[in-house]
Amino acid sequence: MTRTVNGELLFKDREKEVLRKMIRQVADFCGVEVLTYCIMSNHFHVLLQVPDAPSVSDAELMRRYRVLYPKPTKYQEASATLMAAQLRAGGDEAELIRRKLLARMFDVSEFMKTVKQRFSTWYNKSHQRYGTLWADRFKSVLVEGEGNPLQTMAAYIDLNPVRAGLVDDPKDYRFCGYSEAVVGVAEAARGLIDIWSDHGAKQVDSALQAHRMLIFGKHASEAGLSDMTRKRALKVLDQDDGQLPKAAILRCRVRYFTDGAILGSAEFVRGFTAVWQVECRRKHLPKVHALRGSDWGDLAVIQGLRRQLFG
Q1: Helix axes 58-67 and 13-30, enclosed angle (nearest 10)
Q2: Domain extents in the chain
Q3: Among the four 33, 42, 99, 284, which has the fewest Cβ within 10 Å?
Q4: How many CA atoms lie within 13 A of 89 on its CB side?
Q5: How far apart (Å, rounded) are the C-alpha atoms in residues 200 and 164?
Q6: Which residue stretches of the chain have pLDDT < 50?
Q7: How far apart are CA 294 and CA 306, in angstroms?
Q8: Quick one: pLDDT at residue 221?
Q9: Which CATH superfamily groups domain 1-53+105-139?
Q10: Which residue pairs, CB below 8 angstroms and at least 24 apart, start in 58-63?
Q11: Which residues touch 165 (CB under 8 Å, ≥6 apart)?
């Protein structure tokens, strides 16, 4: 997740559409899969699946490079032609090109850096603006790549426009992965199928049904979307052992999904405690913290957060 400077509401439909296309383009270039995403007026979320770096042929490297320039200038076209010729010729120049391109692939940080830089350039040029567009570095959470952790994170992302009060149903919000999957966008449908593949979802219809059940709760088709406010949620949580249904709590802003750092089963999170200790220069090994406030199953995070989960 990344936010604009000072949280300014800079993105209208045109800006969101350009950013949506750039996210897809850069994902293709980087060799990562966008499972779902949501673009709001001052920030965006994206859930990525990053494969282990496979071998990439020279032809595929050039295809991906050209993806970044769908309408190349004469200079960009000449550069691509020269690059392709150098790859065919082999030698040190070809190896240098391969290393430089591959260094930008299969990596979340490189993906976000490229998206943010390209969009900033377009936005500033389109709005006669200069200077920084984004606030600080993006926030990232490592998510266990299957089952409850992955599905819950995806639902949380798709519910952003509901939490913001823009729509009652995320299918009605044009700039999120769930909405795209509903209308049949192939990339979004594949992402949703991958999210729910461990539940036997091999077709988009079954994946959509499973995702909707999580978003709206078991009896969504009968009861519709119930009202859930911050005040009401805190009232329940302040009671002894207060618990909210998962579908309801996902409509609140829960910091676990942006600040929890690592999200997954307790066993999954525990496997990263030593690495986390070294990277964060902590004196003691961090604890594994179970999520509170709802029946999250075995979900846990490495960053223990205070009771003020909603805002």
Answers
A1: 170
A2: 1-53+105-139, 64-69+76-102
A3: 284
A4: 12
A5: 32
A6: 219-226, 240, 308-311
A7: 15
A8: 37
A9: Transposase IS200-like (3.30.70.1290)
A10: 58/84, 58/87, 58/88, 58/94, 58/98, 61/87, 61/97, 61/98, 61/101, 61/102, 62/87
A11: none
Tens digit of pLDDT for each residue in 34-78? 999 999 999 999 999 999 878 899 999 999 999 999 899 999 999
- The full DSSP string for 224-283 is ------HHHHHHHHHSTT--B-HHHHTTS--THHHHSSEEEEHHHHHTTHHHHHHHTT-S
Cβ atoms < 10 Å from Cβ of 155: 24
Q: What is the mean pLDDT of the chain?
A: 87
Res 240: pLDDT: 45
pTM for the full predicted model: 0.87
Cβ atoms of 174 and 181 within 8 Å: the answer is no
